[in-house]
Each structure stands twice: as C-alpha cells, then as structure tokens.
Amino acid sequence: MPIPFILDTDTAQDDCVAILLGVLDEVADLRAITMVAGNVGFDQQTENALMTLSVAGALGEVPVYLGCRRPMVREWVSAENVHGDGVGGLSMDTEGVSVEDEHAVDALLRLTSEEPGKLNVVAIGPLTNIAMAVVKDPDFPSRVNHLFIMGGSNNARGNITAAAEFNFYVDPDAAKIVFAAGFDITVVPWEPLTVRDAIFSREQMASIGEQGTPVARFFRRVCETTLEFDESVGIPGSSHPDSLTVAVMLHPEIVTKSAPYAVDVEADSELTRGYSAMSWGIHGLKPNARVIEEVDAQAFYSYISSTMGIGTVPSRPIIGLD
To answer: What pTM was estimated for this model as a whole?
Structure first.
C-alpha cells in the first residue's frame, strides 16, 4: 500500500532527489510539498521544486505550498556557498505555473486534520514550518502518523560549524520546539550516518547520469556543485541525506541499526547553536526519537540509481539540461 506523506523542503540538490523519489517510487504517495526557508533564496527554492516536478512529468500534480520565509526568531542563513542555486544553473519557463494560495503551515494543519493519524511528514530543511504548526495548534503532533527529520549529528561534528548541522543551526528554536512537542520521530543525522553511508563517489554519480533518462541527467547536473564543494572539504563524494530520509520512510528495510535517543537542540549558545545532544539511554532521560545509526549503503545507492533510471516525459522543457 502506498505511503502518504507531506514533504517539507528547502529545495536544492538532494532535496530535488527526495522529491523525485516521492513522485517516481510506486510505494510513495506524495500529497503535498511545503516550502521552508533554508538552503537558497526562497523564490529560487520554489522554482527548484517546480522544476523537479516538471522533469518527473508531474508538474501540477502535487500541490506546492509556500511556508515561512525566515526562521522563527533569527535571521536566515543560506547554504548557497555549498549548493549555488541548487539546480546547477538549470531553469524552466514558469509562466502560467502557480503554487497554492494557502500558507504551508495552514496546509499542514488542514491536511492532517482531514486524515488524522494517516499522513507522515518528512522534514528535510529547517524545522520552522513544523514548529509554527505546533505553536498554532498544539494538537498537530497527535495527528501526524510519523515525523521523519533530516537534521543534527549524533554527538559528532557539524557541517556549518564544528558543533552544528545546517538545518538545526538555521532555526534551532524551531528544532527545540519540535523535539519537545510529542511527535513520533525518526532522525536521519549528518554525522556519522550520512558521511559514511550516503556519499556517492564521482564514479557512482557518473554511472547514474549515464542511464540517460531526463531524471538521471537532472540528478547529475543538480548534484555537481555540491559534489565539488564536498570534495573541497574532504568528503569523498556527493552527500545525500535528504533522499536518504525519504528512503528510510519508504523502504525501512535499508536500515541496519537504529536506537531510541533523548534528543534536544542547543538554542541559547552562539558557540554551539544548533548542536543536537543525543542521549543514548544512560542519562536518565526519556527517549523522544529513534535515531538511524546505520543503513545498507549499497542498497541505498542501488535504490537511487534504479529510480533515476525511470523514464519520464518532462512537463516543460528544462533549459540547460543536455
């Protein structure tokens, strides 16, 4: 049976891959995309999401809702130095393409009210929209079947500061609210999980691109800038934590190790802003999340490769896609 979910995203690079999984995997039932301030400029993120739907031949089939354009109480911090525009310079004519009028936070509340306990939410950007939904309606967590979060590091290094992973760093106040709200949560962290089990080498990236489908060529192009950045900081390939988060939901058999943790996020210290403290059961704290510790890296790569090999007819031409 297809798994119904809402994808909350700051669409750039691997977020695009996550959207493609939501559209192309027959196990997935992607009900909505909600946009949150994160990786690149908000309008660019929105264009990236629409372009991704288009290359999958699904433009207009999945509603896109615009959410919070800045963190709850802080100034927005971008990752444009990592992702560029998030799509490798590709573009699309968006004349006549529209997004939904309803705000993303209201859409999250409405959709879960219409089907309480049925929908998963996959949050692969800063948690601003999710926290604002909690603030607006404290019963929201009880209506979400499961919340999958890409964020934090499991007591390990960050990727924007020594202490913090980007999503939690951008809006630590939101992350703190979400982990205290009562959701049933699974966390896919940056370190050590992503850096060990969700990195694709240049050879693997080339192999995917050589399949020649529109989505395979799109995948290779949108990931190239981030691949170059990752290599410049000592990561031997392209990083894919967002698509891994969707994969963990759709295909839990790829998970080889996980454990309950008590997760909290530092929101008061500038030195450790966004640090995710993950207590593994010896500190007398009640667990509030399952943290993924290991996945089958080869199975994940094979899943991404086979999905990118699916033939599509883009809804609109993608300018610059050879």
So the answer is: 0.98
